[in-house]
Write a structure and sequence with these properties.
single chain, alpha+beta, five-stranded antiparallel β-sheet, 9 strands
């Protein structure tokens, strides 16, 4: 074997090693932003603990059209418009709503694992709703104000 093929192979090997090291350094520099979830992945218990407040949770009546029991718990954040802020949980996801002078308003919503948000009406209005769809079916959460408290309502 001559010097030329040997030099070409050594050059190719050095270039490959350099490119690999530059790529690894770039990934290390960017960090978990490419491959991870900001703040990490939380399991169901951690999410429930984060949504819970010091007050005991109250449960609204089951919504037979949805097939899940929305659970309302007072939020730990003060409401923006003077009404109560509540969390509602279904098999399809979670929503936080509050009541104000203009009606009920969805503050936030998040689908459960395996679900996505199909439709959302965030308000403020007389009724707001969010629909979660996944492989296990569809769950619609419809909310309104009763006094200054958001409550889940059956949908027509």
């Amino acid at each position: 074997m001559g010097r030329r093929p040997l030099a070409a192979a050594a050059g190719w090997l050095a270039t490959t090693v350099a490119a690999t090291l530059v790529g690894l350094a770039a990934i290390q520099l960017v960090g978990a932003g490419i491959t991870g979830t900001p703040g990490g992945v939380r399991d169901e218990r951690e999410v429930a603990r984060a949504l819970a407040s010091p007050a005991p949770a109250t449960t609204t009546p089951a919504n037979p059209a949805v097939g899940a029991t929305p659970t309302a718990t007072p939020a730990s954040h003060p409401p923006d418009a003077g009404g109560a802020r509540r969390s509602f949980v279904t098999d399809g996801g979670t929503a936080v709503a509050e009541c104000g002078p203009a009606g009920v308003r969805l503050v936030s919503w998040s689908p459960a694992q395996g679900y996505r948000v199909k439709d959302v009406d965030r308000g403020p209005d007389d009724h707001v709703e969010v629909r979660f769809v996944g492989t296990e079916g569809e769950h619609e959460l419809r909310l309104r104000c009763r006094g200054s408290e958001p409550v889940a309502t059956p949908h027509d």
